[in-house]
Amino acid sequence: MADVFIFLAWVLKDPLERSHKFVLYGLGQAKPQVEPHKAQIVDREPTPEEKLLIEASEAWINSQRFTFLTEVNVGSWSGIPTR
Fold first, then answer.
1. Among 15-24, 28-37, 66-75, where is mean pLDDT lowest?
2. Which end of the chain has fewer CB atoms at under 10 Å, N or C?
3. Contact predicate 25/64, CB 8 Å
4. Verdict on whether the full-model pTM lies above 0.85
5. How many CA atoms lie within 13 A of 9 on its CB side?
6. Is 83 helix (H, G, I), strand (E, B) or coil?
7. Which residues contact residue 21 at a Cβ distance below 8 angstroms, ignoring those fewer than 6 apart?
């Protein structure tokens, strides 16, 4: 609960910029989760469930921001190192 309070207090110091960074980071984390599913079906025909999962995931990301414009950030969403 303390980490949620610290996070919220930090975001509320500059809500527009920091909340935008947080959302973009979340989208960037969702994008690589779709890629393993796509890699599994490269050499075969996907099942209807797999196809639906991939399409729904990409549609959700695209509803927020186009997939090809979404950056994948492997660091901290805030830009501040944890050390």
1. 66-75
2. C
3. no
4. no
5. 6
6. coil
7. 77, 78, 79
